[in-house]
């Protein structure tokens, strides 16, 4: 038997796609308003138009069902990030005002546990937004990330501290995004703990 597409099926699918994209559109609108720094009818309308255009021209992304973040773990993650931001800013300021004799920039390989794109993006962006560290590369298949550190202390366990901090972000982020790390990826992959940056 030959399947015949009923009239109006394609528009129905398009409407369903737009309903699934509503959370993304809302997030783009929030980012747009934050960039303008003013909530006005003009900014809301222009943000909706720009967000709709971006979603229209962007290629479809394969992802699972949308998960609303857990409120309390999300707040905990935000407070943790703000604390890290303050501490890292003070440390970078100290290095500028009282520089060490020789900076030791390094690239640290961090094996993670979860291949979820949202969680990987959350962790890598949190690291990049923190002064003194930068996510250079994300390997979803690992999963692992490579973190550039402005100054890695010349002591035993310094690289492991970077790895431990990134994995702690992953654990807190997983709770915020309602992801079970035990089922998401298992044990972290093995790999080089550190390689010194050249130049």
The major sheet is characterized as: 4 strands, antiparallel
Q: How many E-type strands?
A: 4
User: Unreliable segments (pLDDT under 50, ≥5 consecutive)?
Assistant: 1-9, 190-199
Q: What is the number of helices?
A: 7
- Neighbour order of strands in the largest sheet: 2-3-1-4
Radius of gyration computed on alpha carbons: 21 Å
SSE string, helix = H, strand = E? HHHHEHEEHHE
- Roughly what fraction of the amino acids lie in strands? 5-15%
**What's the shape?**
globular
Structural class: alpha+beta
- The helix content is 40-55%
Mean pLDDT: 81
Please report the distance between the alpha carbons of the first and last residues. 67 Å
How would you characterize this protein structure?
The protein folds into two domains: 9-57, no CATH class; 71-196, no CATH class. Residues 1-9 and 190-199 have low confidence and may be disordered. The protein is built from seven helices and four strands, in the order ααααβαββααβ. 53% of the residues lie in helices and 11% in strands. Helix 2 crosses helix 3 (41-57) and helix 5 packs across helix 6 (158-176). The protein has 199 residues and is of the alpha+beta class. The chain has a four-stranded antiparallel beta sheet, with helices on one face.
